[in-house]
Amino acid sequence: MDGNGTWDNLSRYVAMDAVVESGTVVLVVFVGNDPDQDRAPAMLPRVSDPFAAIPLPPHASTANNAFARARGMQRAEPTLEQFLYRHSAVYAWWRVYRALHAKDPMSRLQRKRFQSELRAFSTVGAAEVPGLAGATGEALAAFVRVAAARGDRLLVAVAPPSFALDGPTTARTLATFGMDPATAEPDALHVAVVDEAFAAGATTCDLRPALAASRASGDEPYFRFVGHWNPTGHRVVAEAIAACVGDTSARESAG
């Protein structure tokens, strides 16, 4: 589901755990911007008490599928725009051009946010990587403590953004936002976040190898013009997570 970084998803987990009967929690950390959000002030109060009474967010999952209702409340794109968004390269180019050249304050703010997040995928932002990964590591350590106190098994899956699966794509993305493509560094932040997850004591599932292998085979796991998993990507991720869960179960049984 959409989240605002690891801290906010920890609050969602504590709230949802009271109504969702499951002993296993899968947390997906999106390296594209979760570390940047983890470093910023959390939108929800940060959890310190694993048994705190936290109101269930209006868009959290319940038996009557509040997820779908929340999605329906968001602004719906016109039908033609939805079609073009999925199928038209010209429309995709126009959206990018509009986003890069619009003069209104919101567009400028969004450009600055993207550039800030992209610094960690450039050698220009190499000095920021330890702090970004450390912020996520701190949140993951809290997540591990809270899940253990509540008796749940936690699996942390670390997911790369589409543009960071290979150097050339990272370089093109940097160039799009006016950054030097020669400074592309697609791996550093991802490796640092995976290391932080292990250091936090989390059972960790690195999704990058499976997604990279899918792209290398020609079976593209991301939408072409949107940085989200397409149906192929969801299948690849589901299989990777299932394999990680299976490995964990096997280790626990052997232990």
Describe the structure using short key phrases.
255 residues; mainly alpha; three-stranded parallel sheet; 3 strands
Kindly report the spatial arrangement of strands forming the biggest sheet: 1-2-3
Shape: globular
**Which stretches are low in confidence, meaning pLDDT under 50 for 5 or more residues running?**
none
Look at the structure and give the mean pLDDT. Answer: 84
Rg, nearest Å: 19 Å
Number of helices: 11
Task: Tell me roughly what share of residues is in helical segments.
Answer: 40-55%
Distance between the termini: 33 Å
Strand proportion, as a percent range, falls in: 5-15%
Counting DSSP E segments of at least 2 residues, the number of strands comes to 3
Order of helices and strands: HEHHHHHHEHHEHH
Which structural category do the helix and sheet elements fall into?
A: mainly alpha
The main pleated sheet reads as: 3 strands, parallel
What does this structure look like?
This protein has 255 residues and is mainly α. It has eleven helices and three strands. The chain has a three-stranded parallel β-sheet, with helices on both faces. The protein is globular.
In short:
This protein has 255 residues and is mostly helical. The chain contains 11 helices and 3 strands.
